[in-house]
Design a protein that fits this description.
Radius of gyration: 32 Å
Structural class: alpha+beta
Shape: flat
Helix content: 10-25%
Length: 160
């Protein structure tokens, strides 16, 4: 015949067993959260190599074209790396000039380098730039035309 102590253990075991089986379910994570609405595309600077300009005596400038979009203005720049024979490496370069952006053959924006223009909206643009590249210290001074295709994904800012 079960003793009082055995009955107490049986009752306690019967009470604890369901808690032991149910409590792990309380600790499990719930279903994954519903996907949120896609966030707006952040402004981004897009750069691509646009060409190499050569000058007298082995001067050389490797030029890229960059467009920064996502706001009411699109900033366009033409960073360059300069070399001249005997310089032992790249020199600091300054660029200036003009640029034109076309979409499907139609001119949508023009400006000076570096410079800004009203953002024409997302899309793929063909950029052409006439660039003068000068080095510091002096030694490279080249002028030429470069081309690049840039895809802007950020929309224009609201109210533009």
């Amino acid at each position: 015949m079960p003793t009082r102590r055995t009955k107490l253990r049986t009752l306690l075991g019967a009470a604890v067993l369901p808690l032991a089986l149910v409590s792990p379910a309380w600790g499990l994570p719930g279903p994954p959260p519903a996907p949120s609405a896609p966030s707006a595309v952040e402004p981004a600077t897009v750069c691509t190599p646009a060409g190499v300009l050569y000058g007298e005596g082995g001067q050389r400038a490797q030029v890229s074209l960059c467009a920064d979009s996502g706001g009411p203005l699109m900033a366009v720049s033409a960073p360059a790396g300069c070399r001249r024979p005997g310089s032992g490496g790249r020199l600091a370069c300054l660029t200036s000039g003009t640029w034109t952006a076309r979409r499907s053959g139609t001119v949508v924006a023009t400006g000076t380098l570096p410079g800004s223009h009203a953002h024409p909206g997302p899309g793929t643009y063909d950029f052409t730039a006439t660039v003068r590249v000068r080095s510091e210290p002096a030694g490279v001074d080249v002028v030429g035309t470069v081309h690049a295709t840039l895809t802007l994904t950020a929309p224009t800012a609201a109210g533009v």
